Amino acid sequence: MKKKELKSYFVKSADELNKTLSILQIDLAKTKLTIGVGREKNLKKAKLLRRRLAQIETILSLKKMSDRPEAESAGTKDK
């Protein structure tokens, strides 16, 4: 994934990222199947899809952490 594409994911909403995530998971399953059968020549395709999935999941978790109110995070530090 190129840097511009990665930066574009930070702008998208969580719903759009979840939709992209589900599409990529389906693509990963199809790619694994075609690699196993021997039709896919690009054997690194599954690896790159897994990497992209991990990057999007990381962005989603960062968005969830930033959406959390500061009072909740400050309250856990005092305990």
From TrEMBL:
PROSITE patterns, per the entry: RIBOSOMAL_L29 (PS00579)
GO biological process: translation
Name under which the protein is recorded: Large ribosomal subunit protein uL29
Family as reported in the entry's similarity comment: Belongs to the universal ribosomal protein uL29 family.
Organism encoding this protein: Candidatus Woesebacteria bacterium GW2011_GWA1_39_21
Ribosomal protein keyword on record: yes
Entry GO CC: ribonucleoprotein complex; ribosome
Keywords: Ribonucleoprotein, Ribosomal protein
InterPro entries in the record: Ribosomal_uL29 (IPR001854), Ribosomal_uL29_CS (IPR018254), Ribosomal_uL29_sf (IPR036049)
MF GO annotations: structural constituent of ribosome
